[in-house]
């Protein structure tokens, strides 16, 4: 079988001649159908993710068919279509035993800390795969994983009946805003400097969509709410934007950091202290968030039309990663189909 390797920054290849993996009794072997490329993968590809070591088989967003099951697997059968929850946790550490397995001591996102789904066949513990109904939109369901990030961010921000501003309207920002609306926020605004992303946000039914080019955040607050938002969710991961959030947020605002910062930044601690800001970290999602996301996806409550902007085949991995890298400012989701045709 073949698998994808990132061998060094900006270098991807497809390597062949590997044996199809075998499974232990509580594991399954999956034949990968499709993977999605997300911002983290682009960071890994560019050599900008501090948790990755090359060479690595990338990707964590995936759909697959069950190829083989171990003796103790009862949740899926051979031939089932499944979606994969790619955040592997130890189950034993403080975070895991307190309901925060997403913050596991041994945090392991497939394709970042360990080899991921970019292979024709992969083996994984049964608890990370969920059976999909026979008839469902595979184009929507490949987006379950990034949507789960939005579900978790909304939960972290305790957005019920709150005015929420989401900064950054890429896939994660858009899904975070949709999750906030689905989970009972009073008013949701999203802003970005890419008109294409703001336009996708409008089509997604997000209540307020603002192109923030040449606008300060204070102007965005004023335009959207006439006052300060209660919760600001940062999906932009930009140094300049974060300083502005801290200096402009209203008293007691909750700030949730969702975007992956690849650099260390200086922060105005006094502004956080004096304004009693609640600055919250946020990493991926728990199993509960993932299941909530999957159910909302299956119920058709999540807008995903037009999210998949480009499709590639396995032998086009270089082209795909270069495309995703070059278009990261405007692109929503690039996917790779492993199945023939
Ligand atoms: Zn992702
Ligand atoms: Zn753990």
Keywords:
341 residues, alpha/beta, Quinone Oxidoreductase, Chain A, domain 1, 11 helices, binds zinc ion, Rossmann fold
Task: Explain the overall architecture.
The protein is α/β, with parallel strands linked by helices and 341 residues long. It has two domains: 3-143 and 304-337, Quinone Oxidoreductase, Chain A, domain 1, CATH 3.90.180; 147-281, NAD(P)-binding Rossmann-like Domain (Rossmann fold). It is built from eleven helices and 17 strands. The strands form four sheets. Strands 3, 4, 5, 8, 9, 16 and 17 form a seven-stranded mixed β-sheet that branches. The chain has a six-stranded parallel β-sheet with strand order 12-11-10-13-14-15, sandwiched between helices. Strand 13 (231-234), helix 8 (239-248) and strand 14 form a beta-alpha-beta unit. The longest helix is centred in the middle third of the chain and has 13 residues, at 144-156. The chain is globular, with a radius of gyration of 20 Å. The chain starts with a strand and ends with a strand. The mean pLDDT is 96. The protein binds zinc ion (2 copies). One zinc ion (ZN) binds next to helix 4.
Task: Kindly identify the CATH topology of the largest domain.
Answer: Quinone Oxidoreductase, Chain A, domain 1
Question: Could you name the ranges where pLDDT drops below 50 across 5 or more consecutive residues?
Answer: none
Total beta-strand segments: 17
The CATH top-level class label of the largest domain: Alpha Beta
Annotated CATH homologous superfamily of the largest domain: Medium-chain alcohol dehydrogenases, catalytic domain
Order of helices and strands: EEEHEEEHEEEHHEHEHEHEHEHEHEHE
């Amino acid at each position: 079988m073949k698998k994808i390797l990132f061998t060094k920054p900006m270098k991807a290849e497809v390597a062949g001649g590997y044996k199809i993996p075998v499974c232990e009794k509580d594991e399954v072997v999956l034949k990968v159908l499709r993977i999605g490329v997300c911002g983290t993968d682009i960071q890994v590809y560019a050599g900008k993710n501090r948790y990755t070591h090359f060479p690595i088989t990338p990707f964590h967003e995936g759909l697959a068919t069950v190829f083989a099951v171990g003796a103790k697997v009862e949740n899926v059968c051979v031939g089932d279509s499944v979606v994969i929850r790619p955040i592997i946790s130890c189950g034993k550490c403080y975070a895991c035993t307190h309901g925060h397995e997403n913050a596991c001591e041994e945090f392991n996102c497939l394709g970042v800390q360990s080899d991921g789904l970019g292979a024709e066949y992969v083996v994984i513990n049964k608890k990370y795969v969920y059976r999909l109904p026979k008839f469902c939109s595979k184009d929507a369901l490949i987006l379950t994983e990034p949507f789960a990030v939005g579900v978790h961010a909304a939960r972290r921000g305790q957005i019920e009946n709150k005015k929420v501003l989401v900064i950054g309207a890429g896939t994660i920002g858009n899904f975070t805003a949709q999750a906030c609306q689905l989970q009972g926020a009073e008013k949701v605004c999203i802003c970005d400097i890419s008109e294409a992303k703001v336009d996708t946000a409008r089509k997604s039914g997000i209540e307020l969509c603002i192109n923030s080019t040449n606008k300060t955040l204070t102007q965005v607050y004023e335009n959207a709410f006439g006052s300060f938002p209660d919760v600001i969710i940062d999906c932009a991961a930009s140094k300049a934007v974060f300083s502005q959030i801290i200096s402009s947020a209203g008293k007691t605002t909750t700030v949730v950091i969702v975007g992956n910062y690849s650099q260390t930044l200086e922060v105005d601690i006094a502004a956080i202290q004096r304004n009693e800001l609640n600055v919250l970290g946020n990493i991926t999602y728990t199993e509960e968030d993932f299941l909530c996301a999957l159910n909302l996806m299956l119920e058709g409550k999540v807008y995903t039309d037009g999210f998949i902007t480009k499709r590639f085949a396995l032998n086009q991995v270089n082209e795909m990663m270069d495309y995703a890298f070059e278009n990261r400012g405007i692109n929503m989701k690039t996917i790779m189909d492993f199945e023939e045709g």
